[in-house]
Design a protein that fits this description.
The protein contains one helix and eight strands; from the N terminus they run E-E-E-E-E-E-E-E-H. It is α+β, with helices and mostly antiparallel strands. The N and C termini lie far apart (66 Å).
Length: 125
């Protein structure tokens, strides 16, 4: 088990950002490894935010990760091998069967039915 806890803060302009906090060892420096398809991701930045007693992690999303399908980045504690977080990106044709896309379509159809029903009620009243 790792003493480090990673919390996502945002994904903005192709850079995933999060903060690392330590449960037990204040002042310790984290050692994280970020991989995509088993290969290390380059350009990862880890910056200490001493006033907040945390570390800021910035992971640039590599160009080769922007592709059809599902891409999963693994962020692990290098010392213990514990998975701290994962970043999953889904794009392209795989989304056509995604439950979120289906839910959005169902909401749109439900809104259309509600409007039609209300119009019917007004016309028959």
């Amino acid at each position: 088990m790792s003493d480090w806890m990673l919390t996502k803060t945002r994904l903005f302009e192709g850079v995933w950002e999060g903060v690392l906090t330590c449960e037990g060892n204040e002042g310790a420096q984290p050692d994280v490894k970020v991989t995509l398809l088993g290969k290390p991701v380059h350009g990862v930045q880890l910056t200490e935010d001493a006033p907040q007693n945390r570390w800021v992690l910035r992971i640039p999303i590599p160009q080769e990760a922007v592709a059809d399908g599902v891409q999963t980045f693994l962020i692990t504690d290098s010392r213990t091998g514990v998975l701290l977080e994962k970043i999953t990106m889904i794009s392209g044709e795989v989304l056509s069967d995604d439950i979120r896309a289906e839910m959005d379509l169902l909401r749109a159809e439900l809104d259309m039915l509600k409007r039609a029903f209300r119009r019917h009620c007004l016309e028959t009243a």
